[in-house]
């Protein structure tokens, strides 16, 4: 279900497994409760990851810490990098997807042409192996299904995505979206965390591991949102 990746006086960083829900309004919303039981303390969920998404998730150790961390997310002062895999070549190898999002049918969301309050996703893509493409995504906003919809919009839905990828003969062992890195400043202290994907046959392919390694430090790439000082690695 999870492993503790790091902990401080104010928060825990856990590495969530794919297929685990963190939403309190769903029947399988036991993640935070399980961590609380294991750690013997009350915890607060700072932000959320979709059920299919694995990777880094912040849990605050006090209501005050939760409010301060949540404010960083609201003000877009948290640097986030995600990894995704698709079996379809994108219409462009790198770029930015910008547009308003609207709820669709059966739990889906769709990207609109309007930009009144747009979701913003930047990405780079890399050929990992024949028929398999690795995406490095940097969301500038935090909308529901944002990265999943963005990659669908450029013709590269995420492998194993039950909503945005068409049905296939052989069901993938997971949804291939992973919250890879988090960086932020809190109380004058810089934090940066990285957790490589540990689950999923495709993520464990040597070619994919090599492609992830070859990215190096994603913060040095040319992002349109660049300009703010980056927290150092922890």
Automatic annotation (TrEMBL):
Domain Pseudouridine synthase RsuA/RluA-like, residue spans: 10-152
InterPro entries: PsdUridine_synth_cat_dom_sf, PsdUridine_synth_RluA-like, PsdUridine_synth_RluA-like_CS, PsdUridine_synth_RsuA/RluA, RluA_PseudoU_synthase
Domain of life: Bacteria
Species of provenance: Marinobacterium mangrovicola
Recorded family membership: Belongs to the pseudouridine synthase RluA family.
Membrane-spanning ranges: none
Full protein name: tRNA pseudouridine32 synthase / 23S rRNA pseudouridine746 synthase
Family annotation (CDD domains): PseudoU_synth_RluA_like
One of the GO biological process terms: enzyme-directed rRNA pseudouridine synthesis
SUPFAM superfamilies, A to Z: Pseudouridine synthase
Single GO MF annotation: RNA binding
Alphabetical list of PANTHER family matching this protein: MITOCHONDRIAL RNA PSEUDOURIDINE SYNTHASE (PTHR21600), RNA PSEUDOURIDYLATE SYNTHASE DOMAIN-CONTAINING PROTEIN 1 (PTHR21600:SF87)
């Amino acid at each position: 279900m999870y492993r503790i990746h790091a902990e401080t006086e104010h928060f825990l960083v856990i590495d969530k497994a794919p297929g685990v829900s963190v939403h309190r309004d769903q029947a399988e919303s036991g993640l935070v409760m399980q961590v609380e039981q294991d750690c013997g303390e009350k915890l607060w969920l700072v932000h959320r990851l979709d059920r299919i998404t694995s990777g880094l998730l912040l849990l605050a150790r006090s209501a005050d810490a939760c409010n301060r961390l949540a404010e960083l997310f609201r003000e877009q002062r948290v640097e986030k990098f995600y990894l995704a895999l698709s079996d379809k070549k994108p219409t462009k190898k790198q770029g930015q997807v910008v547009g308003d999002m609207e709820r669709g049918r059966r739990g889906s969301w769709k990207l609109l042409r309007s930009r009144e309050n747009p979701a913003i996703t930047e990405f780079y893509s890399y050929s990992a192996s024949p028929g398999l493409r690795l995406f490095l995504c940097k969301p500038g906003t935090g909308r529901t299904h944002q990265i999943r919809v963005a990659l669908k919009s450029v013709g590269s839905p995420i492998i194993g995505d039950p909503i945005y990828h068409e049905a296939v003969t052989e069901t993938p062992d997971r949804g291939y979206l992973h919250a890879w890195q988090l960086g932020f400043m809190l109380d004058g202290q810089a934090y940066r965390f990285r957790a490589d994907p540990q689950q999923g046959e495709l993520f464990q392919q040597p070619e994919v591991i090599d492609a992830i390694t070859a990215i190096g430090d994603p913060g040095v790439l040319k992002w349109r949102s660049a300009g703010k000082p980056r927290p150092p690695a922890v």
